[in-house]
Design goal:
Mean pLDDT: 86
Low-confidence stretches: none
Number of strands: 4
Number of helices: 2
Helix content: 10-25%
Radius of gyration: 18 Å
Strand content: 25-35%
Number of domains: 1
Length: 73
């Protein structure tokens, strides 16, 4: 197995998402700071890891959110 590029969904050129050469194995990778998340599956998969915002940023953003969004935050 090796890493390859899938065809681009827009133009078909080989600069799409990274993939594993084994046709039945898909993967997704996300990283931020020291955190890395890698997932493998037999179907298209996507993962995302994000850095937790500071308390000050959360207060700043909360001012523009809906009431239900503020409650969740």
């Amino acid at each position: 197995m090796c890493l390859v590029r899938e065809p681009c969904p827009g133009c078909g050129a080989p600069h799409g998402r990274p993939a594993v050469s084994a046709a039945l194995l898909r993967f997704s990778l996300s990283r931020v700071g020291d955190a890395v998340l890698v997932a493998f599956a037999d179907a298209p998969i996507g993962v995302d890891v994000e850095q937790r915002p500071s308390a000050g940023r959360a207060v700043e953003v909360a001012q523009i959110l809906q009431r239900t969004e503020r409650a969740e935050l």
